[in-house]
Amino acid sequence: MPRFGPNVDGVFFPEAPPAIYAAGRQARVPLLAGWNSEESSGRSVVANPTPENRAVSLNRIFGTLGAEALTVYGGTTTLEVARAATDLASDQFIGFGTWKWLEEHGRSGQPVYRYFYSRARPPVVTPSPNANANASTNPWAAIPGGAAHSAEIEYAMGNLARNTVFAWTDDDRAVSATMMTYFVNFVKSGNPNGAGVPEWPRGHSDANGVVTRMRIDVQSRAEREPRERYLFLQRAFSQR
Hints:
This protein has one domain (about 30-125, about 145-240): Rossmann fold. Helix content is about 40%, strand content about 10%. The chain has 7 helices and 4 strands. It has helices spanning about 15-20, 50-60, 65-70, 80-105, 155, 170-190, 225-240; strands at about 30-35, 110-115, 210-215, 220-225. A 4-stranded mixed β-sheet has the order 1-2-3-4, sandwiched between helices. Helix 2 (about 50-60) crosses helix 3 (about 65-70).
């Protein structure tokens, strides 16, 4: 995956961000951050999502940690393997980095709020005539898509109607209203909670090490973070 390093310019970043956070010199403000359910395609992990192919791919990616990777990105069916591959591709692209940011900032004592955005865009208004041309030979064709990278922008900004490519529904407009409410509340007060939206718990570890995030979708809800994935990646990346 591509890597985009910070520009340590001596002004905005007086030093590398890990050093700033390790010393607790970041801005002491609440943080709300998250990522989408399909930030990157699982095809980049495994072309044909079978358990056997997944094992080969994870051993190639993680080497001696391949067996452990199989436990956190598991699955026995084609659908389960495809979802696990998508999770890994998304984590490698932006999920783990955002998770690590939230983790480090949480040590400051300031509240952090984590979200996982999973509302996939609806079908396009006028599909391409070749949209399903390769469906019979594409093993991913029958796998439901998730929320792609940047798919949340129209929802968060409340401008679905300005994008005429997609056939927006009342469910999409409801998700947009929920997301806007959370974001506006947070901008005003540093807390996304308020009337008319499900309770969004802080994203800090409880006494049992459980961390909660908010899944934003048609039925938005707080859920347990799959923490074992990110802790595994933290170990894996530290060895590179």
